[in-house]
Write a structure and sequence with these properties.
Oligomer: homodimer
Number of strands of chain A: 12
Mean pLDDT of chain A: 93
Strand order of the largest sheet of chain A: 3-2-1-4-12-11-5
Shape of chain A: globular
Strand content of chain A: 15-25%
Helix content of chain A: 40-55%
Low-confidence stretches of chain A: none
């Protein structure tokens, strides 16, 4: 299996990306193709004692930064490490693509360069996040600010397949993010999406409120990209604020520092379990080939984990299963 | 000042409500009018040694429960403790109304029985919530699932006045909840609301992302009721999940229990600072008279605090200031 990795995406590129990709090569036995400026990849690797033996490099002149518009990937930045990687994937030069770069550009590029699964209206940005018992998927988390009901239905189907095939959740519970649990809650979009999801080949458990999402209310949270982005980032901000406050408690005095020392291993364990770097990121679900977004602050471990998850994404043939689920929809519902 | 209190609203009604209201009478010197079944109020008070001296009771036959539709308050439950209290407020029988009951019913009742401030399109449900440094207001948090741009503009103005007059924040920073900080981010509603807020008599700081809300990104978060409800409840759920996990860390072994004992006072302080019961709840902003929603799980302390905040709401004449701010809007923007 060949995994294409954007060596210049993310805050810690290229060193941490290269290191993570090379580690994944050794640990998971996948072939690695790095995209980006070949001279820089070679010099950074040499400086840091990283061997590039058996690693392929495909040169790309530029980088698309986080400040640039996502749409720039098509024309202005068609020579970027991200665009070159997506083109390579589309042309059959690899089995999957991983990037920690500009999320918007990756969504646009995945949709327009790699193209969509037949029948899928719009791909969704689908991070896997920790909840109190394990993990849940939140989609769409920002690729589509405005959505139609059928898009939400497809998000539910795709998320269900992914959580089952890659995350090993049997019969994933699919919930529609809404302002109340009763069927009549929410706006027109929610009403129509509810009706479609009820009639889909997924384990639809109805509406799920924001409060229940981190408390393991379901395995797949379905929403439009505006709502998903607000949920995702409110979740992150709340966790960050609380962890900062707790750190404040522990560093208040000599006495509390002693307590901190006692619970340090358990707190590290907790921090690890709510840590993005462990889960690795978000697939762009709905693309014709696997495209995976690693967290922007990805370090070598994050990238290695992202490649491990992406390997399972490929091996378990998520895309074929999504196609099969779509064809299960009744003719009247078929896109 | 006469504060009308719904003795039968909330999970701990009527005992905790009565106790909190009587405590507020003694502590803050406000007159209290309790609404609800007089026989029950008298017997519960007697059984629990609460003196009702100088407390007025206005009888109401029924209660509107949390399971009932908000609109039921108008006809089916017009004899409820909430409806009777709102009617009394509207008729001039008191200066403000406090309830821990059905939020939806309180929003509907406040709008239709108490009526709106002249020029206000729709009242907003506006909880004050803790952030890393203090408090912020989130409105609308669920009264209006669908909003027009002008409603968001008015939420910004009302929130700014309240945070200044009641919470003592000078020149409150008003932010528009959005999927990115750049002006062009979000949907049509966000674009139009952004333009209106920029042109309003508030300290508009632009868009604010979910991540920045708990991290003190602004003092007033403006959004439609669907988004606000998702933010509010995701925030609550994330904090609950994390606190549960931390409790798990502390109770893991004898050793960690020792650490817990050491940091107990600081952890209690932290828990208190993220506790709803301290802030007391949410005004329904935009009503012609002060209506205040206490948290559904309100205990006596919550109710006492809610009455204290409501007293300041009345004393600082928030409603007159909102009217004044509305009239400051240019003629072209005036509703």
């Amino acid at each position: 299996m060949k995994i294409i990795v954007d060596a210049f995406g993310g805050d810690n590129a290229p060193l941490e990306i290269i290191r993570g990709a090379v580690d994944a090569y050794h640990e998971y036995g996948v072939e690695i193709i790095l995209t980006g400026r070949e001279d820089v990849i070679r010099s950074v690797s040499a400086e840091n004692g990283i061997s590039l033996d058996n690693i392929t490099i495909v040169h790309a002149d530029s980088v698309i930064s986080n400040d640039e518009a996502g749409s720039d990937i098509i024309k202005k930045k068609s020579d970027s490490s991200m665009a070159v990687g997506l083109k390579l994937l589309s042309d059959g030069g690899g089995d999957a693509f991983v990037s920690a770069g500009n999320s918007g550009a990756l969504c646009v590029g995945a949709t327009l360069i790699v193209k969509r699964i037949k029948g899928i209206k719009r791909p969704g940005f689908a991070p896997v996040m920790p909840n109190i018992n394990g993990y849940f998927m939140l989609l769409d988390s920002g690729a589509n600010v405005e959505c139609k009901p059928q898009m939400l239905q497809q998000f539910g189907i795709m998320g269900s397949v992914y959580m089952n095939k890659v995350m090993g959740v049997s019969n994933p519970r699919v919930g529609l993010a809404n302002v109340g649990t009763e069927e009549h809650k929410g706006d027109e979009l929610r009403h129509e999406a509810y009706a479609l999801l009820k009639d889909s080949p997924v384990n639809f458990i109805g509406n799920v409120e924001g409060r229940d999402i981190p408390l393991d209310g379901c395995d797949v949270v379905v929403c439009d990209g505006f709502t998903g982005n607000m949920i995702l980032k409110t979740y992150e901000g709340t966790a960050m604020a609380l962890m900062k406050r707790i750190k404040g408690v522990f560093t208040k005095s000599l006495k509390t520092k002693l307590a901190a020392a006692i619970v340090m291993p358990e707190m590290k364990e907790l921090k690890k379990s709510v840590d993005y770097n462990e889960v690795g990121g978000a697939p762009i679900l709905g693309c014709a080939k696997p495209v995976f977004k690693a967290h922007g602050s990805a370090n070598a471990k994050t990238i290695k984990n992202a490649i491990r998850v992406t390997k399972e994404y490929v091996e378990n043939d998520v895309i074929a299963s999504i196609s099969a689920a779509l064809s299960e929809l009744k003719a009247s519902d078929t896109p």
